[in-house]
């Protein structure tokens, strides 16, 4: 009896593994095809100044148009990162963002203080010719470096700290700014922060979630905000979803806010329409 169900169980298990392996294979094949078919695109999410409540910049977030469905980065970036494909896809993203900046410039919608933030994977940053690639694309599209910001995570930054610091400094020379993404989720965050020449610190959404609920998270975010002030680094609160969070963050000095409360990531054309042409959207939202 128990032997029989055990056999059934393991047959099911093997079936399940076979199915998963087949799906994985298909996913990997589809991803490499997606590069050739140019199925990756980006959406934009605004960053809002907590002081003026105006949109100061936007983060470009990658999406994959896989047939009829739009796939979120967490479901394919890990596969790209395992192979060298992340480099190709990352380069392409940067090109697409530059093309978009050119479009804004030509339409007279690009103000000097606006920026687009691009997420940069560790594999990209550690490439020997990363800086060459960046300067080449900026020159090709005639875009000044200050229109770009690169988001890196702590794990990437600490991987090869010395090389990272050198590269950041070199790219900062051409005007590109840097932010440390998902701050607080890595380890030894505080000790290395003073060595990293980043301009912004993005407090991970997991801490922002509970600022009005959990006293510990509230204190943690307060001390991160204080630390950033002391280091002269601009803070960004990620994953802001409620009015209460906005009020708390304003009061406690988070300089920039990003999250569904203001906007989900939207298509570039929609972003232009909402935030660069009819600029009153955020004010309307924040007055809800
Ligand atoms: P991230 O850079 O920390 O991006 C923030 C993520 O939080 C985005 O998810 C965004 O849609 C989501 N988010 C924003 N506001 C809210 C909110 O109020 N509530 C909640 N629950 N979520 C919010 P997304 O677009 O799925 O991106 C996930 C991650 O994928 C990014 O995290 C980033 O690490 C990575 N990623 C995205 N685009 C790229 C890219 O072009 N290159 C690389 N290497 N990684 C990318
Ligand atoms: Mg990011
Ligand atoms: Mg983040
Ligand atoms: Mg994240």
Automatic annotation (TrEMBL):
Protein name: Signaling protein ykoW
Organism field: Brumicola pallidula DSM 14239 = ACAM 615
The EAL domain, residue ranges: 24-279
